[in-house]
Amino acid sequence: MSLAYTPVPICAIATAPGRGGVGVIRISGPGLLPMAQALTGGKTPRPRHALFTDFLAADGSPIDNGLLLYFPAPHSFTGEDVVELQGHGGPVVMKMLLARCVELGARLAEPGEFTKRAFLNDKLDLAQAESVADLIDAASETAARGALKSLKGAFSGEIHHLVDDLITLRMLVEATLDFPEEDIDFLEKADAVGQLHALQAQLRRVQATARQGAILREGMTVVLVGEPNVGKSSLMNALAGDEVAIVTDIAGTTRDTVREEIVVEGVPMHIIDTAGLRDTDDVVERIGIERTWQAVEKADAVLVLVDSRTTPGAAVEAILARLPARLPRVFVFNKIDLSGQSPGLAEGPGGARAVRLSARTQAGVSELKAQLLELIGYTGADEGVYLARERHLDAIRRAGQHLETAAGVWQQVELFAEELRLAQNALSEITGSFTPDDLLGVIFSRFCIGK
Ligand code: GDP
Ligand code: ZN
Fold first, then answer.
1. Each residue of 304-350: pLDDT tens digit?
2. Which residues participate in Mg(2+) binding (predicted)?
3. Pair 356, 226 in one domain
4. Do 352 and 263 fall within a single domain?
5. Do 225 and 371 reside in the same domain of the chain?
6. Of the candidates 109, 124, 139, which is a domain's last residue?
7. Binding-site sequence positions
8. Tell me, what CATH number does 267's domain have?
9. CB of 288 within 8 A of CB of 256?
10. Is 193 contained in some domain?
């Protein structure tokens, strides 16, 4: 990857904002040893050993004391020299230390810039770099495990494997181009079509796993409709069970009162409670509600909660009428412990999916979970699932289309060769060996500072 950058040292506070026992400043750039020496009053840190030291201001007075770690290039996260200062985790101390680093010639890092340098220095490929952010943002243990798997190269490895096989086939096809007389014979003897089919099957397997990984990352958005006291809050608790939703601080996702995050079987679920979608004069609340309706447009399902002893009322009907028609509906007849009905699948109005359950006794809750996961095509995270993104699925889809076209035109060797080339390019976007610079900018700008 050749995207050039000006290798000035960059620095950032790598630990989360606020107070903590320890705060870490990370510096990356070429030739950081003089900076480390200036910070420590002339000490020379041993590579990859902790050095307990004062961190000094320009006049030689100590700003803080702590550990300095020195990772000379290329054996560091970014592939450049990296220095980490572990000081006391107070915002004022950290700010003073950071200012001192700037004074010594570093500039403040942009979001994701460390990871970007790691990518540009071939320490990570693009899918791995993305998984750094995904690991930090993971909303469930399953998602975190999947992100780590991607970071360690499980996903990239599959893509590399596919690309290698594609290259082998391309070499065969391109060689044929030089002997137009016998081209088709030659391809038949070498079973080019058989190789292509094997590639397509392999791509489909990767696609299936990646799709599961994308669900784990993105989760599903569920709209919750129901009158007061039908048991919405109780149902959310029952669905979440022991899994604690970790609220992450992803840029641009401000949480409003009408949205809740829970985790079901490792899949993050973004629940929009329409009870909160009321008319209001409060400007801020109105903006939140407007945004929520936009989320409703992209939702995966609507859960209509009804007390099993009654039928849905007019207020619920009104909201249902406002929801996009394509949204799959799942009716939930709650409080069956009071109505005496038995738990499990049932039929809702108009033949809609329905589940009878009790949020209180939990009877029937697992059936509802199964219904929800089935709706988005989640079949469970076995050990093999790595985290993937919509961007990856899109690239895989396009590669698949080119292979499909290739299968149809294989007797026109030039077209065949071209489709294989396009398939390879699409796959290479995933690992970043064929990715436009502007896309790189977008990907890295979504990181947090210090990563
Ligand atoms: P929400 O207003 O729709 O969020 O309803 P809540 O979850 O706050 O529940 C309203 C009341 O119904 C509470 O007293 C709950 O304990 C009760 N409740 C909820 N689900 C059940 C259930 O399945 N069985 C019984 N017996 N009570 C329930
Ligand atoms: Zn409630």
1. 999 999 887 787 888 888 888 888 899 999 999 999 999 999 998 88
2. 233, 254
3. yes
4. yes
5. yes
6. 124
7. 26, 84, 123, 229-234, 248-254, 273-276, 358-360, 451
8. 3.40.50.300
9. yes
10. yes
By the 8 A CB rule, do 424 and 167 touch? yes
303 CA from centroid of ligand 2 (Å):
14
207 in a structural domain: yes
With a CB cutoff of 8 Å and minimum separation 6, the contacts of 242 are none
Distance CA 384, CA 209 (A): 8
Number of structural domains in the chain? 3
pTM higher than 0.80: no
Q: How far apart are CA 218 and CA 108, in angstroms?
A: 31
Q: What ipTM did this prediction achieve?
A: 0.97
Expressed in angstroms and rounded, the spacing between residue 232 Cα and the centre of ligand 1 is 7
Across-strand partners of 354?
331, 346
Confirm or reject: Cβ of 236 under 6 Å from ligand 1. Answer: no
Q: Using one digit for the tens of pLDDT, what is the confidence trace for 64-84?
A: 999 999 999 999 999 999 999
Q: Which ligand 1 atom minimizes the distance to the CA of 358?
A: 23
Query: Are 345 and 396 found together in one domain?
Result: no
Range of the domain at 401: 130-215+386-432
Tokens 């080339």 map to which residue? 421
Which one of the ligands is nearest to 227 CA? 1
In a shared domain, residues 199 and 255:
no
C-beta atoms surrounding 412 within 10 Å = 13
- Tell me if 334 CB under 6 Å of ligand 1: yes
Give, using CA atoms, the residue closest to atom 2 of ligand 1. Answer: 229
* Residue 292 Cβ contacting ligand 1 at under 6 Å: no
